[in-house]
């Protein structure tokens, strides 16, 4: 059901795509996002253990994943037993000299990483204020953008007409006709949704930016909180990739747009870098 194009306005009958006369229930943009989620869901391998930081950290020396295991330690003075979680390289690709690492050490380093690409509420409010001003200016150019999209839509309609004519005149075979028609109708949907979006919002980057700023301020709270390893791991994977452990030190690459916050954190205030992100949001979502 979640893979039916019917819900965003296209129908397929005998291998050919048609525009539906019904009102779409969802946008094609949302449909595409759902397909990405489904792909991740069904390609995901089940975890045998409920360790927060497994599955995304690899060994820098041998490129194997780090796994986790629990060990019990007995304290004679108190006659008590305490369980500790350790992370280690699985060493599936050969000899590896990387040492064990306590879960607390991994956790502290991940908190530093998430904190380094977060925003304080003060900077978040300043950034949103500046973005709102940019958004107002950009609305003035929305008319020109709508004209371009309308011309593109008109050209696409002409291509559909020419495609149909070539098929009726038996210049194009049925398989090529159906494939090209499907491609053009998908593009048409995207153009129509962009036109609707610009008419509604004036710009497509402001709302995603607001959501990003909210997530960046949430990241700061996650980095400060306690006993939230699952949330911490989720945000770590959201803000970075290519996590490697090397001599008990965690390395990573910040992903866009969080990489701009990482740059600004190492230089000055986040406003200049973040506003560059604002203006280029459409080209770097």
List the main descriptive attributes of the protein structure presented here.
285 residues; alpha+beta; 3-stranded mixed sheet; 8 strands; 53% helix
Model description:
The chain is of the alpha+beta class and 285 residues long. Among the domains are: 1-39, no CATH class; 57-116 and 227-279, no CATH class. Helices cover 53% and strands 16% of the residues. It has nine helices and eight strands. It has helices at residues 28-43, 103-116, 121-139, 142-168, 174-201, 206-224, 229-239, 258-266, 271-279; strands at residues 10-13, 16-19, 57-59, 66-75, 80-89, 101-102, 240-246, 249-254. A three-stranded mixed β-sheet has the order 3-7-8. Strand 1 (10-13) and strand 2 form a beta hairpin. Helix 2 crosses helix 7 and helix 4 (142-168) runs antiparallel to helix 5 (174-201). Mean pLDDT is 83; it is low at 266-285.
